[in-house]
Write a structure and sequence with these properties.
single chain, 358 residues, 2 domains, three-stranded antiparallel β-sheet, 13 strands, 54% helix, globular, acyltransferase
Amino acid sequence: MSDNDAEPLCCCEYYDKDKNQSHILACCCFCEDLDEGFESLITCNGFPRYRCLRFMATFQDRLRIPWRGGAKLVAVDSILPLIILPIIFIIAAQSLWWTIFSFSTITVFLLYIFQVLIRITPRTKFFFVWTITSIVLLYIIFEFVVIPLLEILLEENIALSILIASFLFCLYTLKMRASRFHKSTDDSEMFSLPGTRFHNCSICQTTVPDKDHHCVWYDCCISRQNQCLFMMSLLFAAAALLYSSNLTLTSVCHPFKLYETILLPDDCSEVYQEFELGISFVSAIYSIILAVIILIILMQQVLLVSIGLTKKEWNKLPFSSKCFLGLTNRKYHSKGFFRNWSRILCWTEPKYVSINHT
């Protein structure tokens, strides 16, 4: 029977990873992969990588929701941030100790989940969805909780929106540029340019010219072609986070004036008396933490471009060399300070020559 003659799937049917027609109720029936996985967990006999991969693949393949034309696959790692972040914010808004506990817990959780997901499912969307969820959640809290406090001027809200829009534009552009120049590892078409170094990315399964590193938070590789946009996005993100946090804190806390023009928060002891104030305060603290991390990454990128090293090369340096900012090591691919920066400028996009390998 051809595909055209095949009967359409009902809302609870689907084709599994082995191309066999199955039903959503089959998730209640255990197969060999799931049996072995649960047995390993219960008996504490270890969980080898190959068995873990099979278990996760089977579990993921069966996690579906009814949909017209066939059950749709639900990626667990992609929906976790949508659930975890709002819950963390709500818990943290209860008191100061809950805020400290929530942010400490989420830090440990992210470090652990990074080690697990990168090893089991390298192409996970968890971290990218976390980035987008953070942006949306912080913006919703600012617009629908902080703004109604009537402490924010229209000009301040417009300025913040421009910073966020600039960040999203840079993020979209760098991902588009990454998809343009980064080719699949099994693609017969490659690019050639004198002095170009090609690197295979094990996470996104692409061949990347002049790769610097893979950014899990942006879900793409950062290379010479989009490194400038990457740093611009970090700059806009840090500016938006610091600006929004200052506006929020001066709205929910007792502010004071610095040099008669700049408002800074002073006494925030009453923010947990109302939920709206607590959730606003928590969002501001979360924004400050993110901004500090982003600024550290941005400064590292500026340093690496200036001295002509990639992040991978930096990670391989001994600790003593890192203490001297890598200046004591020989840099084979450095072109000098000015030429290093001119290579990654957004408006000097390199022209690659396409080569077909037959």
